[in-house]
Amino acid sequence: MALPQAYAQYNNSKILTAKPAELTLMLYEGAIKFCNIALAAIEEQDIQKAHINIVKVQKIIDYLRQTLDMKYPVAQDFENIYSYLSQRLVEANMNKDAEILSEVNGHLHSVRDNWKLVMEKVARGEG
Length: 127
Description:
By secondary structure, the chain is mainly alpha-helical. The chain has one domain: Flagellar protein FliS (Four Helix Bundle (Hemerythrin (Met), subunit A), Up-down Bundle), CATH 1.20.120. Helices cover about 85% and strands about 0% of the residues. The longest helix is centred in the last third of the chain and has 26 residues, at about 100-125. The radius of gyration is 16 Å and the shape is globular.
């Protein structure tokens, strides 16, 4: 078996066996990854690559918004964050604006880091 195929199978297995909180963490990680790629592409003036990766971040944010369970009050807070990030991503993509994209990336890091903290507290029985 070729190494890339084995890696792909491992990743598929990792996703299929992940708990919902872990999947959310993976989505945040993916959004950060694509945001970083888009930032690098803007620096390299590769407009197409920047666009493709900003759209990937937008799709992840859209998915996160669609999966919110609004029966919990905190879901509205996440909706507000995701809505803001979506608007900023549109602006960043229209203008290929690295400053806006850096801001979004910072917010993604904050949300991801807080999500990790919550996961750790729940795992320790504190949440």
